[in-house]
Inverse folding.
C-alpha cells in the first residue's frame, strides 16, 4: 500500500509530522520528488533544526530555492524569528499605539513590553509565511516538513491563542473608544483598529486552510516502538480536536528481512508494535515503509523511497 490522494488537484497543502527521528524529512522530501513529476512543488521546512539542506546536499535557506537537477521542485526553510522581526517592523507603531492609548504604561514600559515576544506570535507568523506562499499560487503543491510533535502542534493550534490575544487587544481598544466618545465625540477607527482587523483575518485564513479537508491533509509518520506510538496517539487526538484532516499514516523503519539473528529479533520485537498500531489506528490508511539499507539522502535514494511511499 502507498499514500493515496496526493494527485488530487484540489489538495494543496500536505503536512508531515510526528515524533523526532521517525523520518518526517525523508517522507516529505521524497514526496516532493514524486509530486514534482507532475506538479510544480514547493517543499517547506518549519523545523528550527532544518534538515532539508542536508537531505538534498545543497544550501536551502529562507528564500525559495530550486532543487538542483530536479525540474518543478523548490524548497524553503521558514524562519519564525525572521517572520517575527518583519511583523514587528511592519506593525510596531500600531502595537505601541494600542499600549499607549489603552494602558497606563509610559514609553519606557511600552518599549519593555514591545521587546517581549507575544506568546506564539513568531510561530503564527511562520505559518502566515506558509499561507502567503500558498495564496501566491506560484506552485501546485506545498509540502511541509514540520518540527517534532510538540512544536508542530503549537504551530497548528496557535491561531486560537493569537485570536485570544486579538480579543484582549480589541477589548482594550473598545474601552479607549468609549472614553473618546465621552469626552470628544464619536471616535474614528485608526491604524490600530485596522491592524486588529487584519490580524483577525490572518487567523481566519489560517484556520480556513487547515480545516479544509479538500485542500489540506496532515500525514502522520511513526515507527514501531512503544514511545513513538504513544506520542503518535496524542498527536492524532490533538489534530482531530483541532479539526485537521488526518487519515493516513506512515510506519517507517519496518524490518522485513529475517536473514540473520539480529534481523529476526528486531522483526519479532516490532511485530507486537505493528499489531498495536493496526489496533489503535485501524481506520487509517497505513503505509509500511521498510528499514532502508543506508541513509536516504540525495536524489536517487529519495526518488526510490518516494516511489515506494507514493506509488510507482
Amino acid at each position: 500500500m502507498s499514500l493515496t490522494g496526493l494527485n488530487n488537484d484540489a489538495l494543496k497543502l500536505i503536512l508531515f509530522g510526528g515524533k523526532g527521528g521517525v523520518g518526517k524529512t525523508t517522507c516529505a522530501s521524497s514526496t516532493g520528488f514524486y509530486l514534482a513529476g507532475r506538479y510544480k512543488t514547493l517543499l517547506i521546512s518549519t523545523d528550527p533544526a532544518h534538515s532539508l539542506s542536508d537531505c538534498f546536499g545543497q544550501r536551502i535557506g529562507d528564500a525559495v530555492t530550486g532543487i538542483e537537477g530536479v525540474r518543478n521542485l523548490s524548497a524553503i526553510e521558514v524562519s519564525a524569528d525572521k517572520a517575527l522581526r518583519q511583523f514587528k517592523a511592519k506593525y510596531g507603531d500600531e502595537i505601541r499605539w494600542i499600549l499607549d492609548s489603552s494602558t497606563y504604561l509610559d514609553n519606557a514600559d511600552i518599549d519593555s513590553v514591545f521587546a517581549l515576544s507575544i506568546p506564539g506570535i513568531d510561530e503564527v507568523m511562520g505559518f502566515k509565511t506558509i499561507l502567503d506562499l500558498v495564496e501566491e499560487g506560484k506552485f501546485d503543491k506545498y509540502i511541509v516538513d514540520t518540527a517534532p510533535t510538540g512544536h508542530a502542534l503549537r504551530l497548528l493550534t496557535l491561531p486560537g491563542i493569537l485570536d485570544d490575544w486579538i480579543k484582549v487587544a480589541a477589548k482594550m481598544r473598545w474601552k479607549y473608544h468609549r472614553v473618546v466618545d465621552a469626552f470628544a465625540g464619536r471616535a474614528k477607527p485608526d491604524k490600530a483598529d485596522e491592524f486588529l482587523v487584519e490580524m483577525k483575518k490572518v487567523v481566519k485564513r489560517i484556520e480556513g486552510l487547515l480545516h479544509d479537508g479538500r485542500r489540506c491533509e496532515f500525514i502522520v509518520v511513526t515507527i514501531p516502538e512503544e514511545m513513538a506510538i504513544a506520542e503518535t496517539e496524542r498527536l492524532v487526538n490533538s489534530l482531530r480536536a483541532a479539526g485537521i484532516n488526518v487519515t493516513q499514516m506512515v510506519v517507517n523503519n519496518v524490518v522485513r528481512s529475517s536473514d540473520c539473528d539480529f534481523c529476526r529479533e528486531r522483526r519479532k520485537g516490532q511485530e507486537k508494535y505493528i499489531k498495536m498500531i493496526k489496533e489503535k489506528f485501524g481506520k487509517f490508511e497505513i503505509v509500511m515503509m521498510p528499514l532502508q539499507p543506508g541513509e536516504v539522502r540525495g536524489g536517487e535514494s529519495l526518488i526510490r523511497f518516494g516511489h515506494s511511499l507514493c506509488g510507482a
